[in-house]
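Example 3.
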Amino acid sequence: MTPILQINSLKASVNGMPILKGVDLTVNTGELHAIMGPNGSGKSTLAAVLAGREDYEVDAGSILYQGADLLEMEVDERAREGLFLAFQYPVELPGVSMMNFLKTAVNSVREHRGLRPLGAAALLRLAREKAALIHLDSRLKKRSVNEGFSGGEKKRNEIFQLAMLEPRLAILDETDSGLDIDALRNVADGVNGLRTNDRAFVVITHYQRLLDYIIPDFVHVMYDGCIVMSGGKELALELEARGYDWISENGVPA
Amino acid sequence: MARGTRQDDVEARFIEAHHRLFGPGLNGEPGFLHNLRQKAIGRFGSMGFPSKKDEAWKYTSLRGILRTPLAVAPDCTAPPPSVRAIHGLDAHIGVFVNGRLHAGLSVLASLPAGVTIAGLGDAPPALVAAHLARQADFRGHAFVALNTAFLSDGAFVHVPDGTVLDKPVHLIHVISGRAPTLAQPRTLVIAGTGAQVNLIDTISADLAAPSLVNSVTEVFVAAGARVARFEVQDPAAHVSLVTALSAYQLQDSHFQNNSFTFGGQVVRNNIAMLPDAAGCETLLHGLFIARGRAHVDNHTLVDHAKPDCYSAENYRGILDDRATGVFNGKVLVRQDAQRINAYQSNKSIVLSNTARMFAKPELEIYADDVKCSHGATTGQLDAEALFYLRARGLTMPQARTLMLQAFARDIVDKVPIEPLRSVLDERIAAILAR
């Protein structure tokens, strides 16, 4: 097994306020890790630091991605190297057409991998195939990126982009939040269809519900900026049954 | 207005040139043209060029180019520049070389009967006399006066009553000169009752030295007529441009102007709309991209003199480096002009710390039953949107270009002529990729 992501003693802050207080996590290729935890525990901060958001300051620790120092890489470089973040709040881009956006994104990633850029016809074919996979309304492809999309459509669009860009490591930041049960199933179907031996997932979620459909290999619980518990998929069920209070009551280091 | 001696020198050069060219007499021309020129040079002489003390010219100065001695007569020895037609556009093309219709370069074979595209000198004198210098105010504007004072020929378009032109009309003004030049294109467009025309206006300039183009366009839109005009301004960085567009609208007519400014040193567009009857619709759209030390100033006036009209303005600008942009949009609603809907929007993106944008909406309303609104925003590209694009693998320049193209698209998409839209898209992409 090859580690694709190695996070060592990561500490990060926003505006001088420490959020991550020493995170350790190793993700191997082919694995799907779920990170659960109450609001404010640092889950989304971890996703933001991995994607390279500038307003997050890394104070200590290291992140190795495919053996290289991730923190030295620009946001777009990380993406071209195969790291994908599905946004918790996907951004609306009025006037940027879906196809033009996909073409630019897909071809910049392909170029980086030494592949020939896709022409309009090939891209359209690929988009049709991938959209079907996650039940994305094909009419959305004719619109501006996320503009006027419903909450569910925006989240499905994130998974659609994931499918188009074929990353090595995908981080899903609360992709299940705000989804009804049908949209949740579509998103889960999409993710399950994209699980391969050479791709890893980190699924960040507040609720266990998503993990009924996406079965994780590992579950980690974040609390106050640290991963305080790790286990198999049964840990998610235990958390569901006992609630997050169970963690604090069980003598978690403060 | 009292003016200093140095400033007078600038005006005096043009007045002297006018006497040299037009002093002796009529030369067989219609008397009214001679009289018009005399009146115009008189007005020019008493007004002089505007200075920064004039509120309307607070941000924009053409002193630099006006201090340069400029040739006012066409340079016939300069080789004619290549004429840039729009790729894939099926249009009636009128090419005007230094103001005169060039039959060989024009494409007018399929012009429907009754429609005229000609030089002003060959146009029906009664129509010219009835409309020329009626809309563009040479009494109040020095640059219009200067253009009118040197008026001898220009572009003339007449679409008679009830005629709908399926193909657009493309007017190409060809200007050339080796020495510093003052070129003054003049255009008169008359759309008869119920007539419809799409009009594209471009300049193909080959000016080796710093020069000034001072153009005047007058449009008469009769009752029920629809005129849409598309102007692409893309002169070299050492060429300045002052334009005046005046449209006069009658009952239930529609006029829209779409201006695209991509080049030039100092560009000043003066747009004056007079919807002078009920039921008129007036749309003004503009996009400019200014880089380097370019200065682009759009001054618009919609004078709602009559009730039940609609006007909307949408201007967008992208500024980089040390460029300056100005938008001054005045909407005047006169006392009897009830039930007017007038909207105005001006959005700018400033990409550098040294670029500046001055936006000034001016609503002057004397009627009580009106709906008017304006909004002006000046800002930078949305950081969250840039991050989103970069998180998908786009480099910073790619992400910026994509977002700026999206910003421009709002205006470009208002162009219903596909080949023109493609040309604009390509040009914008090329400029933004630089």
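The first strand of chain A starts at residue 3 and ends at 14. The first helix of chain A runs from residue 43 to 51.
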